Design the sequence.
């Protein structure tokens, strides 16, 4: 939704704000988990408390996010006729007679009461003409095509490694700090969530403000034209920070460094995960805008699924290699996958245009 209600130059800022704000607030509230559990007398109290804002969010999503769809009639531009379909495909015609349906008539707004307008805005299931069962039948095919797309598959694997490393770290540090020589209490471990919350806040200037500035500079050097490859530099910082924090966390936990170092590396790892969320969203939606829905499903759901599989696989991995060595190996693997972005930056545009030509023929 953030993509649909913002202009292209605003998206890095608002997408980063979405990821950073939501995750920082949730982590700050999670710091109160020990107090909620103690007050409720059971771990179930946590779910009872959070069921209230979850239910409210469903209602607010319906009332605060009205449908913004509108038909885009063909328009005359620079001696040609431009026609855009609902899925974003643009067709150029030389004359109005070539346009299906001919030249559209001028539509004048009709007056209606405020209640009727409000109800029409929140009814989202009857606005688009390309949805329905036919669109559902095509969606698995789009999912398969996006899965086999190397430019999306690379982001999927990178997201799984960085997010999976963050999940493993957040699960491990609680057990680490509760054991000797730290001996943190249940309440103190809950307060450690402030480290991840601060990491999420710091991700905003890194993934939002910095990315916007870099894209502006690259577009200026490209005669004002923004290319999807201009978003690739935003992957550099999360890959470096994730690699470094994972390796150092493994060393710090193995050698029992001061607890402040442990929380610093946990916050840095969370910082890299939030940054990569923003970079993933920007890259797949700008590189393949007509299939952004399927691409986001692959990178989001697929990456989260693989990351949780990685978190389960880390247990025997740590038992086999040891905590420090397993984290260092995961850091090296993250760096190697991140370096794939170098050839993508050089040859990605050419390959992306080839993929578009193949998909155009299929359609």
Sequence:
């Amino acid at each position: 939704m953030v993509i649909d209600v913002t202009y292209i130059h605003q998206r890095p800022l608002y997408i980063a704000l979405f990821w950073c704000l939501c995750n920082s607030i949730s982590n700050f509230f999670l710091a109160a988990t020990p107090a909620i559990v103690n007050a409720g007398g059971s771990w179930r109290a946590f779910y009872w408390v959070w069921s209230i804002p979850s239910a409210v969010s469903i209602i607010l999503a319906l009332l605060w996010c009205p449908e913004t769809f509108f038909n885009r009639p063909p328009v005359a531009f620079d001696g040609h006729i431009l026609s855009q379909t609902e899925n974003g495909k643009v067709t150029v015609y030389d004359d109005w007679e070539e346009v299906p349906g001919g030249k559209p008539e001028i539509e004048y707004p009709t007056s209606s009461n405020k209640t009727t307008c409000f109800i029409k805005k929140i009814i989202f299931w009857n606005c688009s003409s390309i949805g329905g069962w036919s669109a559902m039948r095509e969606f698995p095919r789009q999912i398969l095509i996006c899965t086999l797309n190397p430019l999306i598959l690379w982001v999927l694997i990178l997201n799984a490694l960085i997010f999976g490393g963050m999940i493993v770290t957040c699960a491990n540090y609680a057990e680490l700090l509760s054991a000797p020589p730290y001996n943190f209490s249940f309440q103190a471990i809950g307060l450690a969530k402030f480290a991840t919350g601060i990491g999420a806040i710091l991700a905003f200037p890194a993934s939002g403000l910095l990315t916007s500035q870099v894209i502006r500079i690259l577009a200026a050097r490209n005669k004002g034209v923004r290319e999807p490859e201009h978003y690739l530099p935003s992957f550099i910082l999360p890959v470096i920070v994730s690699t470094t924090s994972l390796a150092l966390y493994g060393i710090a936990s193995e050698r029992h460094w001061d607890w402040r170092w442990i929380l610093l590396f946990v916050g840095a790892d969370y910082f890299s995960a939030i940054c990569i969320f923003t970079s993933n969203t920007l890259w797949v939606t700008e590189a393949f805008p007509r299939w952004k829905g399927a691409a986001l499903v692959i990178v989001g759901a697929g990456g989260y699924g693989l990351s949780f599989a990685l978190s389960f696989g880390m247990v025997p991995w740590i038992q086999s290699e040891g905590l420090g060595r397993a984290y260092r190996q995961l850091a090296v693997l993250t760096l190697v996958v991140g370096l794939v972005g170098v050839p993508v930056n050089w040859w990605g545009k050419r390959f992306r245009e080839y993929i578009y030509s193949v998909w155009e023929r299929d359609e």
Q: What stands out?
A: The chain has two domains: 11-22+139-362, 75-103+111-123.
